[in-house]
Amino acid sequence: MTPRTKWTITLVSIVVVLGAASAVVAVAISNQPTTSTSPPAETFDPALPGPVSPVARPTEIATGLEAPWSILRLESGSTLISERDSGTIVELTADGEQRDVGTVEGVVHDGEGGLLGLATQPGDESAVFVYLTAASDNRIVRIELTGAAGSYALGESSDILTGLEKASNHDGGRIAFGPDGMLYATVGDASNRESSQDLDSLNGKILRMSPTGSAPDDNPFPDSLVYSYGHRNPQGIAWDDNGQLFAAEFGQNTWDEFNRIDAGGNYGWPEVEGIADGDEFIDPLLQWATDDASPSGLAYVRGTFFMASLKGERIWAIYTDDEGGAGTFAWFEGEYGRIRDVTAGPDGTLWFLTNNTDGRGSPAADDDRLIQSSLGELVEG
Questions:
Q1: Do the Cβ atoms of 268 and 276 come closer than 8 Å?
Q2: Spans of the chain below 70 pLDDT
Q3: What domains are defined for the chain?
């Protein structure tokens, strides 16, 4: 499968209104990533349909975070943020108060491991699901969330999935409930490359499970949590309006990837990295040089994918079409340092999380930060 051979060039424009004047930036659905700095002004209406693009100067809504990893917005108006190294979950209330909810028991930070992804089951915020590194493994745990917005606390916990191989790198760690109500998890190869092609191993995979950790009957491999395989270190997952799953994945030395995830699909690692143009493995829709991406969180907001980039120090906006193609545009390059996670903010905005205090970045005075960007409509030009 080679999606790039199907691409067509489709021009679109980002229109940014500045007083009576307009600035127009051309974007193409092509295989060449494009970069821009922040636009100088804003046209913002959360009711506008997508696709969209950042507009105006972003604003800080939380500061002083320590090695933050995952953003989880709650229906109560509060937001939970995981801090990888300390194992702490921080609450940001709707009025901007920051407080510690509690420290997750059993978290052991080692390299890239620690307290990683957060998720809640749709319609049920009585518990938070966490992906964490423990003394002997990576695991997914369900923790009761007691209290209310502004006074949340952590209650009793129960294991959902244990025994995932851990390492000081390639731990994966993103979890999210899909539109089908199932819990998905990205699991890295834990530096054991062969595990990615081994269907008896849960490492180097994207997993799909019930909220209690059992294998759904309609999973592609009988009695297995494996949904797709041949992954190196995926850390971002998101679904489009059609319920199609996509993932962002760290490459080795050459190519990072943006993949359309098919049930049972083999994405090639470690046999191939990036586009192979063969029939044995599924090729990525997009690939980047590792200096330009090192992708982590992925979000689908108003018809647009937004991908956080660590080494690339930017957010990639990704636009997909009905023909299996995808195009990109990069925002905020070098302005905020490493970016770990992205998610939909309130009123049609985009939230993103910097990650400069994890030992690999260059922290600014207020790092790490949660930042909000307004989004304007992307229109055909």
A1: yes
A2: 1-49, 379-381
A3: 3-380 (2.120.10.30)
